[in-house]
Amino acid sequence: MRSYSQSRRSTWRRILAEIRPAWALILTSLLLAVVSVALTLYIPICIGDAVNLIVGRGMVDFAGLFPILRRILYCLLGTAAAQWLMNHINNLITFRIVRDLRMKAFRHVQSLPVAVLDTHSSGDLLSRIITDIEQFSDGLLLGFSQLFSGCITIVGTILFMLTIQPWITLIVVVFTPLSFAVAGFISKKTFVHFQRQSVSRGAVTDLTNEMLTNIKTVQTFCHEKEVCEEFDRRSRELAENGLKATFYSSIVNPSTRFLNALIYLGVTAAGCLLCFAPAPLLSIGQLTSFLSYVKQFSQPFNEISGVITEFQNSLASAARVFELLDELPEAPDPANAEVLVLSDNPVSSEAASAEPSAHRGHIVMDDVSFSYTPDRPLIEHLHLSAEPGMRIAIVGPTGSGKTTLINLLMRFYDVCGGAITIDGTDIRGITRSSLRDNCGMVLQETWLKAGTIRENIAYGRPDATDEMIEQAARQAHAHSFISRLPGGYSYRLEENGGNLSAGQKQLLCIARVMLRLPPILILDEATSSIDSLTEIRIQQAFDAMMQGRTSFVVAHRLSTIQNADVILVMKDGHIIEQGNHANLLQQRGFYYSLYQSQFAES
Hints:
The protein is of the alpha/beta class. It has helices spanning 4-19, 23-54, 62-111, 114-117, 122-164, 166-175, 178-213, 215-220, 224-275, 284-325, 349-352, 402-409, 432-437, 453-457, 466-475, 479-484, 502-516, 532-546, 581-587, 590-601; strands at residues 363-370, 379-386, 391-395, 417-422, 425-426, 439-442, 451-452, 492-493, 520-524, 550-554, 566-571, 574-579. The strands form 3 sheets. A 6-stranded mixed beta sheet has the order 6-9-10-3-11-12, sandwiched between helices. A 4-stranded antiparallel beta sheet has the order 2-1-4-5, covered by helices on one side. The protein has a two-stranded antiparallel ribbon with strand order 7-8. Helix 18 links the parallel strand 9 and strand 10 (550-554). It is elongated, with a radius of gyration of 35 Å.
C-alpha cells in the first residue's frame, strides 16, 4: 500500500502536469504579484518618512508631507490595478484547468470498459467528476491567489527589513518559519481526514442518486425509514470525518498567529530599546516601517498556512479524480482492424468511408469461454453458428448467461477463451465503432436522454428526416401517444423519460432501433413493459424488420419466440438444447419444462 508521502508526491506531480499548459498565464500572474507586492512594501517606507517629518519637530512639514502622500496614493492605485488583473488571470487559469480536467475525466469515463464501470456506482463517479473536481478548483484558486503573493511578500519584506536593521531582521527570519513547521506537522493529520471526508461524500452522493432514481420502488416497498436510516448513517460518517478534518485544519491558523504575535512582541521591545538607547540605532519612523514589515512578513505565513490546509482537501479530492483517470480504458482497436459494413446505408462516418464489403452477417461463436471473475466461470466452451438472416432466440433461467452472450457479441466484454467471428473475421479485429454501428439493441432497461422525442428517436441516426422519424414511430406503434402529447414530436422529456410511462419509454426505444435499420438486431426483453395487444402488433413489425437480418432475441416469455429459426436453451453458461419450437417440445427436455410452466401460469 502506498504511503502518505508517496501518495502526496504522486498527486503533486499530476497537478503540476495539469497546470503546465498554463505557464504563460502563470508567469504573467507572478509578474503582477511582484508589482503588487513591491508597491505594497514601498508604502511603509513612505509612512516612515512621513512619521519622521512629524515626530520631534515643532511643526509639521506639509511641504515635504504632501509629495509623500501622493506617492502613497499612486502606490495604492497601482496595487489595486495589479491585484485586480492578477485575480482575473488566476480565475482564468483555475477554471480553464478545472474545465479541461473535468472534460478529461468525462471523456475517460466514455472510454472505460463496462467491466470497470460495473465496479463503480454512478453516484461515486458523479462525486468524482463534479464534487471532487470542484473541491480541487477551490484549493487551486486559493493557491494561485495567495501563494504567489505570500511567497513574494516574504522575500520582499526580508530585503526591505535588511536595509533598515539587519540584526533584528535575522531574529525575525529565524523564528517566524516555526509557524511553517507547526502547519506542516498538523497538515499530515489533516490530509488523511480530508481523504476520508471525500470518500464519505461520495458515499452520500451515491445513496442520494440511487434513491432519487428509484424513489417509486422505495415507496412501493415502504422502505423510506430504512433509506433514511442509511442516509443518516452515511451523513453522520461524513460529518464525523468532516469535523475531524476541520478540527485539525482549524488549529493551524491560530497556532501560527500565536507564534507570529510573540515574534512581533519581541521585535517591538527590541526596536524600542534601539530607538531610545543613548546612541539610537533606529529612528521612530524606521521603527514604524520595520514593525509594518514584521506584520506583513508574518501575515503571509498565516495565509499560506490556510492555503496548506485547503490544499489538503484539494489533494485528497484530486487523488480521487486521478484514481479514476488511471483506470485502464478499453484496449484500442488494432492498427489493421477492419471496418465492418453489413448494410448499404451505414450510420457512422467510419463505415460510410469504408470500401464496399462482401460481409453478410454470418456469426460464429467458436469454443467461447467467459467469466466475470476468474474463480467463478460462467460460459464455458460455447459453440454457436448464426447464418445471415436467421432469428436466434435465447432462453434460460436467470443467471444462465443470456445477456452475457449479447455483451460478448457487442464487445462490451471480450471473451476469455475461443473467438466470436463475423464472416470469418474475429470481432477483436474489427473496430468497435463499426461493429456497434451494425447492431441495434433494445434492452429491457430503457434509457432516454433529456430532450425532445424527435431527438431521442433519432439518437442513433441524427441525419434522419422528420418523415423517417414519424414512420419509425408508426412502426413501433408510438405515433398515437406521441400525437396526444403537447407539441407532439417536439415534446420535451425529463431525464430518462421521467414524464412517460414505462411502456411509452420502451416504445420510443423500439422506434429508435427501427429508424436505424441495423443489419444485426438484438432484442433483450424488448416488449416486457408493453401491453399484450401492442406487443402483438410490435412483434409483427419486428418480424418484418428481421427479414434478411441476423437477429438475437433474449426472451423470458416463450410465446414471443415461437417463430424463431433456432432456439438456444442456456443453463449455467452452456447451451443444453438447440432447435426450433416444435422440435424442442418433442424432446420434452428443459425447454419443454419451461414452456409447460409458463402455459400453466397463463
